[in-house]
Amino acid sequence: MSATLDILFVADARFEGGTSTALAVEIRAAARAGLRTGLLAIKGPLLGLPFPMHPDLRKLIDDGLTERIDPDMRLTARLTLIHHPTIVENRPTRRLSITTDKLLIVLHHPMYDGNGRRQYDLDRVIAHASDAFGADVHLAPVSAVVRDSLPRLLPPYAHMLEEDWGNLVELDDWPAKPVRPPAYPVVIGRHSRPDPLKWPTAEDAHLAYPADGSRFRVRALGADAYLAEKYGTLPTNWELIPFAWDGVPDFLGTLDFYVYFHDPAWSEAFGRTILEALATGLVVILPPHFAVLFAKAAVYAEPAEVESVIARFVADPVLYRSQCEQARRFVENNYDAAIYSDRVARIIGDETTSPAGDGLFPPLPQRNVLFASSNGIGVGHLTQQLAIAQRLPPDLTPVFATMSYSMKAAVQHGYQAHFLPHHRILEADPEDWNTCLAEELFELVAHLRPTVFAYDATAVFEGVTRALDMFPDIFKIWVRRPLWQESHRVFLEFSDSFDAVIEPGELAETFDHGPTAACRKEVFLVPPVLHLDPSERMSRESARAALGIPDGMTVVAFQLGAGANFDVKDLRAALLAEVLRRPDTIALEIQSPITPNAAGLEILGERHRTVELFPSFRFSRAFDAAISAAGYNTFHEQVLGSIPTLFVPNEGDEMDLQASRARWAELTGRGWMMRRDYDLGFAAQHVERLLDPLERAAVIRRCQSIVWKNGAVDIARYVEDHARMLRTDWDITKLGST
Amino acid sequence: MTPPACNICGSSAFGDTYGKAGSAFIRKNVRCEGCGSLERHRLIFEVLRMRGLLSGNRRVLHLAPEECLATILRNRFGGNYLCGDLDPGQFSFPVTRIDLCSDLDRFAPASFDIVLHNHVLEHVACDYKAVAARLDGLLKPGGLHIFSVPFLEGGFREALDERTDDYRTDHFGQWDHMRIFSPEDFLQTLGSALPVPEEYDATRLVPAERLFAINVPEDAWRGFNNNSVFLLEKRQPEDAFAVSPATHLASARPPHRPDAVLFVSANGIGQGHLTRQLAVARRLKHRPAAFLTMSYSAGIVRDMGFPVHFVPHHALSGEEPGAWNARLATEIELLLDAYHVTTLIYDVNFVFDGIIEVLRNHAKLQAVWIRRAMWPSHHASYIGAGVHFPIIIEPDDYAAALDAGPTTTDRAKTTLVPPMLLIDPSERLERGAARQSLGLPQEGFVVLVDLSRSSNPDLTHLHGRLLDDLLARPDIHIVELKSPLTGNVAPRHPTRHRLVTLHPAYAHSRAFDAAIVRAGYNTFHEHIAGGIPTLFVPDESPDMDRQVDRARWAQERGAALMHRLGDGEAGLSAAIDRLLSADARAALTAACAAITGARWQNGADVLAGMLEGRFDGEDTE
Amino acid sequence: MGIFGWLPRRGPKPATPEAEPEPTLAIYASQPALTAIIVTLIGVDAAQVDEIIDVTNQRFGSRHKIVYLTDSLDFMHFRNRGAIFEYLPSALEQKLHAAEISWNAYLAKRWQLLVSKWQPVHVVSYGQNIDAFLAAAPRMTARNER
Q: Integer distance in angstroms from the first to the last C-alpha of chain C?
């Protein structure tokens, strides 16, 4: 069954700046015109870091204004628009079943940059696009600057579009700022991606953005520490505002003048940010080479002339007003998103007949996502993966391959699961075992054909990386929690085997100075991840009824861990005794499904109970207090679930730094900390405080004040976006040759 | 008072025109410092802007292109904008070389929407009238020829042979002028090649206050002058009236006393049949109309000024069907006599025996069955009654492609006409007037709610949830249609929920920003043809027409949203969210426009025309 | 054991090409003294597992490593006894997930791998034998175009 689109957008949806914004404007304009469009996301070679899909583009898919396209879909498009030539500089790594009447490549940048370096190989780009879509290629430069940089002679199946594919602006999103006559100190500013190349040399910077605070205030959006690296100490009248997805129109509304100079090495193809400033109705001061693009809408000067240009406008409010008006009018006349539908109609013809083959748009093809995890201690890794798996859309099928004994939990959630025994159980040599593992994983992946492989473990086995190397096209994610011990630093090198490292955040993040803290800029950071949202728990009444707890009893849940690598027997005994000394308490020991029976728990009376619960969090509204270890899942459940908890961190060698979490809780009033080796003698005081209703109420209040959204949602959306991404970030023609 | 500003580039700084000192053509303070525009350019731009001509894919030919206009036109029209000149090299942007004396044959006739040239015709080194006529010939019907020329007093003069620059300056005003036009004989000169107006008054193009605001001074407004902008519209050939009658319904010679048409309808659910008949009746210009109906909505017929007779269906009166049918036949025959009826129009799925008897007894009576499609399949047995009607008229249903009902296989003698609506979309009240008449605020978001009238508990529940959801949103006003059949229900909100009895409601529909309605034939077509962003909640009662198919058809085309009773509350909330989003509504309206097409034709008009012998736009009376 | 037990041991490379060992999947390649037998427990009732472990241990445990091949999810049975086990999804699980993978093809390959891995001296069957199990594995059922 083939579906028809009016426009297929092919783009790397992860670009942060103007490229994505421009694309979003096009998609919205097309939707308003009643065109049916789709977005095929490409993982191109330019962005190596694990950027998520741009939120504006994601929202367009969520709102149904454009369809998400899977590379395997059979489609006909009247027009295919490839945005940004670099995304087809390598061949697509999959065959496409897409036919199109017209194929356009939008060229956002000139072929050569300011230093004369070639930015993309036009012949390759044209050839790959034509091969992939089976059509002649039309080149659509965004401006005269780009057009002029292109060669006169093109291959026979490539043509140049007569008109420029100018960047468009949704004027409603950029309301004209109210005109105020400027007066000293004037506010001058600019905005851009956080890229040092977007800023001029130090000398020019001090001329164009004067340091004289009595006459100028400089505001820069998209500026942070990298500026200090480029310029040294920054003047005090410079205000740096970090890059943000939104709030730009408001920012521009605070300026009197927009001043933009950039590094000579940068070649500005168009300058979308400049367009946005013009749209707002600002006096825009630019280097002279922009005159060909913006004519009288802006004012041109060398950096040394900026101050006198500004002075001229301050002295003449009528001139200022007129220039502001010209700026906005220029955008209204020439770059209004409303002209987009006409532009498209010129390319594909006027008939806006609904797509032939009337029927609803076909659903996305089912894809498998393989979740692999090690055994760790406990169900932590598996639980984190379940958190993600359950939030995936129905068109993605999670499949599990784990070394954990709790694999059953995945099956009980309805997922296909495979067991990979660890070499310790098999009593085998690690190298032999890795050889097997590589082979076993290879077979599983070859048969499952997942598009995403999500790995959750502290260590990365060589068998895993060897198997994954055989499937360069699969998108490989390492979900890697922080708070590492220093001795685990060596594992960081494994990051290279993955396309993305995702870090579920820690509430105690400020206490993390471990090996992962320094890499935070290279990972996709999400808020803390929980399997169950606190709001999804059973009500207190139902939970207590299910657990058979009589009214009026104070329930203290015990989750101190299996004790396999960190013996807390004595501590546990002491705490239990203290808890049970009071007549109205119940000590509820929560067993994990994998605790070996050999643990031999001694029952100390009627009010000491054990229960096997998974996931225990679902019942936790029944607990009045808890005593637990501080592993990632349990810790965040207790705090985000507002359960007053005495944390006894597991300080074994192989663990993450649980003590840091417990300490954070103690110091922020969100729990208490007790250390096995230091505090055994104070068990009574700890329990007394734990059972004090006022103390508990205070902790609950502090916990409830935390603003949190489940990082599992972000990871699931990340997986969803990447499961359908077509990769062009590596050269498939070189596969097989070393 | 704000100083005048250039309407093209926004600048408020103006200087003097260029030219040699002492030249006849220098004017002070009219040349825009921002884009170089002169009065005529701003006037042209203003007219284009006011008439919405700066969008849509028009083909534009611009000669001697001024940059101030060329930039915008190129950005708006892309490859459809062609600018040309004898000497392209003098321009800083790409211009094609066009020699007006020899190159106009390159262009296909009637291929441009706009031909634009300012101060060009005085330069052409050949027969200027021929050039003007040829340029005019390049325009499509309805296209615009926009131009200006310079004038000097003293009568038209020209010299095509070799003269000195000084000579030309002295005689024609500029060294490169081949001729100069003059106000006193303009109509005889250029006016003999182009239909220029007898008098020129710029305020007819753009209001005076606006002319001041864009710095077109008063001395340019009247009389033929250098800044007179001529805007000549190319005439359209007469339209052919597209009617597809396969049969002739009126006698060849118009009768002395026009014979009446009797409209007969049953009680069904809803007013659809009656409304279609009224649509035809009110478009009859000469023939009187009378109605016989079993519907309780008979009152709407009387409100529209037609005589109406009511016969209760035997289910209501408890009569034995055989006797009832006989009585029905008698009633009809009485009316045939009383009104001198020669045409009977029937609009019911089921043909009563009484009707059949009448048709048998009156062989000369023209019997027309208006039979709209989308029948539920269990009405299949009714199709056979078509044998009694020589003429079957089927008003088109946009969603006809999804029709799987019994009428689709019985098309042999059916005449298809365009969809029938009581009121044409263009006959509706303007938004402001409609809102005022409904007592609605001029600003604010208004939703029309008109769900099915059937008593279905699920529907009642949905209706309640719907109102709650809408009223929970702060600025929504709801207008809900009562019908005499729904009885008295209280509004749910003192100010934002209005229950109104309105017939015809469609006349007011420009007041609504969005609508949540059932998908009966009339409502469906009203909303699609009217481009109203709509969420259809189809009535899926077994005896209704296939509303769900219509709604689904529209949804698949992006022309409407659909919510079915079984779709659940979350689905309803999500659908309402989408309906209220500006982007989604714009897309829906655009898709509706695509379906309706450029020219709306009312099937009722077509049928009325057929009944009165009006074919091809002629009136035979 | 510690962390470094998880990393592959990097031993000295063999001096001459002939000395380079054949690429092998044998899990006990570095411990040639160890031999293994596979005991399949497909479709076997959970209650009987303990007894089977006792019996097989008695019979083979002193001379060979015993690897239990199970389709049950109750891994703790084996863990509590310190028994080595491999898992294959049961017929029910295969049916539930028949649209996601071709079990027929995959399990056949998997069995081959297990045999190469363990190089069993014997294969002892309790419950359904492995050939019948593999033969009954479904092919991939149709779903949306791939």
A: 45
